[in-house]
Design goal:
CATH class of the largest domain: Alpha Beta
Radius of gyration: 21 Å
CATH superfamily of the largest domain: Type I PLP-dependent aspartate aminotransferase-like (Major domain)
Structural class: alpha/beta
Number of strands: 14
Largest sheet: 7 strands, mixed
Helix content: 25-40%
Number of helices: 12
Strand content: 5-15%
């Protein structure tokens, strides 16, 4: 392709807008109105109960507990599993900061672990190398929505007697080998922040298949009461992690269309992966052989070293592609450097910080022609790499 770049006054490759996010219609309004008119806005009303049951069904889990956000979901998981100050918790070096900060706020030490260069998920071999006699748990993150190598991780956890908390913030509805994320470890945590593929502005959900853990979680999140009681009998030092009825109403409406959108993202993501795999200079996140469905919160690819990444991103945006800003690696964050938890060698996560490009999930909801144009735009920009 020799068309002029859009940043050089050429015609953008894509002029049609991509689907906006979040998607909503009158059903969201009706559900929120239902909550408002009921007068039951908090504690545990009928919408929360319905949502919890439906989300558990979505993830093929026995129990689901709606909470106020995804960061709190991780915090609750750490508490319910009786992890304590001084314990070491293994987390991937490439993820959102909440995965590492939740253990810090409980006096634990997050131990950063490098990620796999193909999946961008925590590397099982690096997990083994990071284990000490103080290691108590692993928090694998299904980055971008691609399930981790959970069979390998669970084998390691069983060998060393470690607990597993799955951070599924990116991976609603994802599964591999017939098993949905959140069901491999003791607990799975989800986020419903406004950019997520199942969203309510804010919110989170914890899933488990353990009756004991669910009963304990439900007490802790409800100020130490038994179950969803609203009296002033408190049996343990819990707090208020509850979701509201209004958030549950939004999520119920979102659930009504979730499967259709998830399948559309899956098709769009697989198409874009195939198209970009044919372009020299880019390397998309792999779709593993045992993948059932990718969660596709993000579509991520790596640029080769001879292309200026930031100039590439800006140029690709000008071509009409919805490019997102990427995470820094955790070892780069000032807040974690101050906690002295960033020592180590993390070449792959550093590569992701320096060389990755993210495309937002709403782009995968476009039609095949528009998704093909994304690949055409990437090829166009790479063909002009000498001027970036």
């Amino acid at each position: 392709m020799n068309q002029a770049l859009a940043v050089q006054s050429g015609k953008p490759m894509i002029t049609k807008e991509f689907p906006k996010w979040p998607i909503w219609n009158d059903e969201e309004i009706n559900r929120v109105e239902q909550a408002v008119r009921s007068g039951v806005w908090g504690v545990e009303g009928p919408l929360l109960t319905e949502y919890a049951n439906r989300f558990a069904d979505l993830q093929h889990a026995k129990y689901a507990l709606p909470v106020c956000n995804g960061s709190i979901a991780i915090d609750l998981a750490l508490e319910v599993l009786d992890l304590r100050a001084g314990d070491e918790v293994l987390v991937p070096d490439y993820t959102f900061m909440a995965t590492a900060v939740a253990p810090i706020r409980r006096g634990m030490k997050p131990v950063l672990v490098d990620v796999d260069r193909n999946t961008f998920n925590i590397d099982p071999e690096c997990i083994i190398n990071a284990i000490t006699n103080r290691t108590r748990a692993i928090i694998p993150v299904h980055f971008g929505g691609l399930p981790c190598d959970m069979e390998a991780i669970m084998t390691i956890a069983e060998r060393y007697g470690l607990l597993v908390i799955e951070d599924c913030a990116h991976a609603h509805g994802a599964h591999l080998n017939g098993q949905y994320v959140g069901n491999w470890g003791s607990v799975g945590t989800f986020s419903h922040q406004s950019s997520k593929t199942l969203c309510a502005g804010e919110g989170g959900t914890v899933v488990t298949n353990s009756t004991r853990l669910f009963t304990l979680m439900k007490s802790i999140y409800n100020a130490g009461r038994h179950g969803c009681e609203v009296d002033y009998n408190h049996y343990r030092c819990g707090t208020n992690y509850r979701m509201t009825e209004l958030q549950a109403g939004l999520l119920l409406a979102q659930l009504d269309r979730f499967e259709a959108l998830a399948e559309k993202r899956e098709r769009g993501g697989a198409l874009l992966n195939n198209l970009l795999s044919e372009i020299n200079g880019v390397r998309p996140q792999v779709r593993t052989a045992n993948l059932g469905r990718h969660g596709y919160y993000l579509f991520t690819f790596i640029l080769e070293d001879d292309i200026d990444r930031d100039s590439f991103k800006n140029t690709l945006r000008a071509e009409g592609v919805p490019v997102e800003d990427e995470y820094p690696a955790l070892h780069s964050l000032e807040c974690l450097k101050k906690k002295d938890v960033t020592r180590g060698h993390f070449p792959v996560s550093q590569m992701l910080e320096d060389r990755s490009v993210w495309i937002s999930h709403n782009a995968l909801l476009a039609n095949e022609d528009q998704i093909t144009l994304i690949a055409d735009a990437v090829r166009k920009v790479i063909n002009h790499k000498n001027v970036l």
